[in-house]
Recover the amino acids of this structure.
């Protein structure tokens, strides 16, 4: 809501709302209000939650979280059907004749996105026609994107197409990106920032005695800064270095959307703003050609 107030043109939204932690009715109201406040510029990212510990703190059984997620999504779709009441009887959510007073400005609803690091979620997203963003190492991202594309092809098209993207469907990837005048200076900024970021991501699972980096409870990325760079999850260097690395990944993954994570850990604001400026002036213009 705050970003919508300060802007006029950019589209905006969460990536993601964790549906197992929300009342679908509350989320339906939130979506409608935010879509009107933004003048129809809202995008909706949804997911089920990667951490069994965090959803567990909310008294949600992680082993059932996918079932709850799917039930919540179906309920939300029923609530955006255009009717003036919501009646829904699912495995986890039940509503009968609930008045739906406010509908989204975008009809029938804003575009929905799904972020995933596994083929099960990627396949579900494709089958349901959502826009898709992958993360993790290049090889893992490619596997998940391939699963999404196969499922989407069986469906035929996106639920809410976005014609500004080729094919009408967003296929994106998330990458940490830090830019500086030299590769050495970029690494100087990025290494401690990403190490601190990884420590935060891993803190809760280590607190619970989990080790290693495979499985649902773990982070789908390397354990160190060097791992992130080697796997392609982090792209660090001069504008030329970054442009080359992004172009390589676009060619390998076939993505048409890039989610950039540019400010993390203990980065100094001056370093972050300089990185953003270099990315804006020397990287973005070349990305448009990809």
């Amino acid at each position: 809501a705050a970003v919508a107030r300060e802007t006029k043109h950019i589209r905006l939204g969460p990536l993601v709302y964790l549906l197992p932690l929300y009342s679908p009715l509350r989320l339906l109201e939130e979506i409608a209000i935010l879509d009107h406040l933004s003048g129809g510029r809202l995008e909706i990212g949804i997911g089920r939650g990667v951490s069994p510990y965090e959803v567990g703190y909310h008294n949600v059984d992680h082993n059932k979280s996918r079932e709850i997620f799917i039930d919540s999504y179906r309920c939300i779709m029923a609530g955006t059907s255009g009717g003036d009441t919501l009646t829904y009887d699912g495995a986890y959510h039940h509503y009968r004749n609930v008045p739906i007073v406010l509908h989204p400005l975008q009809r029938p609803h804003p575009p929905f996105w799904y972020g995933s690091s596994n083929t099960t979620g990627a396949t579900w997203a494709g089958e349901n026609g959502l826009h898709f963003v992958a993360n993790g190492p290049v090889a893992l991202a490619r596997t998940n994107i391939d699963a999404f594309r196969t499922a989407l092809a069986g469906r035929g098209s996106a639920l809410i197409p976005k014609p500004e993207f080729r094919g009408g469907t967003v296929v994106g990837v998330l990458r940490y990106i830090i830019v500086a005048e030299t590769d050495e200076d970029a690494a100087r900024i990025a290494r401690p920032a990403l190490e601190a970021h990884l420590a935060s991501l891993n803190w809760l699972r280590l607190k619970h005695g989990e080790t290693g980096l495979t499985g649902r409870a773990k982070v789908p990325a390397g354990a160190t800064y060097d791992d992130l760079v080697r796997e392609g999850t982090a792209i660090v260097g001069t504008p030329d270095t970054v442009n080359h690395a992004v172009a390589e990944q676009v060619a390998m993954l076939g993505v048409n959307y890039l989610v950039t994570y540019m400010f993390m850990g203990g980065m100094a604001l001056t370093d972050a703003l300089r990185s953003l400026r270099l990315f804006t002036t020397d990287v973005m213009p070349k990305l448009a050609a990809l």
Remarks:
- Strands lie at 17-18, 44-47, 85-89, 94-99, 112-116, 131-134, 171-179, 234-237, 257-261.
- Residues 183-207 form the longest helix (25 residues).
